[in-house]
């Protein structure tokens, strides 16, 4: 599996650095404890962007709480 790249997005982010696909990304949820600000007892999932062309994953700091 490809390594997930961490990116701090401050501007338009719609092109894959690996393959230059430029129509945006798919989403995937991966299990990983979030860092600060997590309510105890709640599970959080990391939301990562996935290039639909080559499968490269990008972690831009999103996470969601799952009930
Ligand atoms: Zn790609």
Please render the helix and strand layout as text.
Blueprint: E1 5-6, E2 26-31, E3 43-50, E4 57-66
Parallel strand pairs: 1-4
Antiparallel strand pairs: 2-3, 3-4
Bound molecules: zinc ion (ZN).
The site of zinc ion has 8 residues, from loops.
Describe the structure.
The termini are far apart. The model has no long low-confidence stretch (mean pLDDT 87). 0% of the residues lie in helices and 39% in strands. It has one domain. It has 67 residues and is mostly beta strands. A 4-stranded mixed β-sheet has the order 1-4-3-2, with no helix packed on it. The chain is built from no helices and 4 strands. β3 and β4 form a beta hairpin.
Work out the strand percent.
35-45%
The number of E-state strands comes to 4
Percentage of residues in helical conformation: under 10%
First-to-last CA distance:
28 Å
Number of spatially distinct domains: 1
In short:
With 67 residues, this protein is mainly β. The chain has one domain (5-66).
Observed structural traits:
67 residues; mainly beta; 39% strand; binds zinc ion
């Amino acid at each position: 599996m490809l390594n997930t790249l961490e990116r701090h997005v401050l501007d338009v982010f719609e092109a894959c650095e690996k393959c230059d696909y430029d129509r945006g990304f798919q989403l995937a949820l991966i299990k990983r404890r979030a860092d600060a600000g997590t309510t105890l007892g709640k599970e959080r999932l990391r939301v990562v962007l996935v290039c639909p062309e080559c499968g490269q994953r990008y972690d831009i700091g999103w996470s969601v709480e799952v009930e």
